[in-house]
Amino acid sequence: MPRRLLLLAAATVLGMGLTACGSSIEQDELEKQVASTLETQFGVAADVSCPGDIDAEVDTTTECTATDRGTGEEVGLRITVTSVDGGTANFDIAPVG
Length: 97
Prior knowledge:
- The protein has one domain.
- Helix content is 22%, strand content 43%.
- Strands 1-7-6-5-3 form a five-stranded antiparallel sheet.
- It starts with 5 loop residues before the first helix and ends with a strand.
């Protein structure tokens, strides 16, 4: 596992909010928010790649990949919708594995 992204494996699960357009979160918005959360919470600049949009429904999950910009190493992240309030969906981010 990547040295700097290894912090994620030992970290508590994070929460974040995204604005939902209709009943889904667009892929590019999800990727931006996950990358921003990693940088804000852990100081790790990472490029995030997700497979597509995610439904704005509680317990919906997707797996994204974060690539450390400094080392090129990757870690899988599981994104889980924990709540939806109006147009905002809240998520947990946890390392896969």
